[in-house]
Amino acid sequence: MKANHIFYLLRATYQNIRQHLVINLISILTIAFSLVVFGAYFFGYLNLQQTLSRWRADIQVIAYLKDDISRRQLQQLETFCRRQPEVAKVVYVSKKEALQRFRESLGQGSRLLEGLEDNPLPASLEINLREGVRELPVIEKLTARLAARPGVEELQYGQQWIAKFYSVLNLLNIFALGITGFLFFVTVFIVSNTIKLSFYSRRETVDIMELVGATRSYIAVPYLLESLFQGAVASLVALGILYSLYFSLAQWLQERFYFLQGVVAVRFFPPLVLAAFILLGVGLGLLGFLVSFRWLRGS
Amino acid sequence: MIKVFHLYKNYLPTVMVLQDVTFAVAPGEFVYLTGPSGAGKTTLLKLLFAAERPKSGQILLAGRNLTTFSRRQIAHLRRTIGVVFQDFKLIPYRTVFDNVALVLEILGLPRNEIKKRVWKVLKLVGIEQKLYRYPLELSGGEQQRVAIARALVNNPQIILADEPTGNLDFEITTEIMNIFNYVNSQGTTIMLATHNRMLLEKFRKKVLTIHQGRVEEFSWTAAAE
To answer: How large is the ipTM?
Structure first.
């Protein structure tokens, strides 16, 4: 292909877009709307995943210690815990610290504790787990090993809660896969039909270009570029709309549900997802072109 | 220049549109293709510029056998023949200049060369002052001039015209025919389909008459004999 060809094809693409501005705008808005629906769903899914991940990071095993545990036993137990491959961090909480924490958590109600003569709270080891080993079977194996050690009174790791948490997470992932597939299919369908409609009025142009000796690839290039342009612009428009929605939602959550701060965090797409979203728009444009141009040639 | 041997064409299995059509047009000849509506004139022209494939038979254009051409070869062939239609077939959202320049852009000629050649051919057909108008802003006669300019711009050896004056009045028809005559006088072979008796009588040429898909006669018009 000569350099002149590239210039003529780019010029033809520009002319096509300019001369069919309204239909291009309609296509872009339709594609953008489909992407907003898809993006809004994905935004929700991503944030839910992030929140659940944060909760998962909080999963820890607490080993409550017997009151008569000796200093030597405690040291041995701490060393044993640190040597376990699943363990990331071990923090010793003395009886005094435990009471202090309890007092702080009660706030004004801490006066209730004033009459206490003995500290009823046990000392404990807070054991944080490494990422990737926070699954229930792993935790159960670890606790079995710990339970056999001298000086350990009781182990707590929210067994029921963790089991439920993981079943919800699995269900969510399966459900998300189905919804993503369905929404993607609907988006592809809408986009390809929109691009097909935008080409409809130009069927005769394709015939004319063939009559004057244009090859199919030469005819196709401006349509391909136009579809990619529509996809890219639509994804940017969709991102703009999604960001406004996110901004409004974040503000609303902050005003109405300020007490959820730190528990539920709403975040916009990270840069990688932003790039993937734009690529998705361009990819949809490409897919729409492939479906439409095959139909256009067939006519 | 155009040689057709035992050409057959059907659209439905039982309906033969062209049957055993054989004829030859010499280089530089101007031939009318005539016959009643439905005789097969348009189909024959479509076969000559490879918009249709024959059922059987051979078509030689400038010594090349069209019937064996690939899609890409057909595209290249069409750049060397000019085709003119009754309904002009102009791209409505491209200016007169851009419509005519299309063939040269496909060839990848430089912009300056295209400008020169388009201007020259538009001047030849007498529409150079409407360079940047859109087809729908022009009259039927003007649109046909643009279509002829597009067919001529790459100096084709052959021009195929399907009822090019079918929608035009007598005065415009005469002007269009004068353009075709001039182009023919420069050595271009022309095959023009028409069923306009007045045209055949006023501009006497060789006539290929088709009736019910068969060649009925291939001779000079009566007035010339």
So the answer is: 0.86
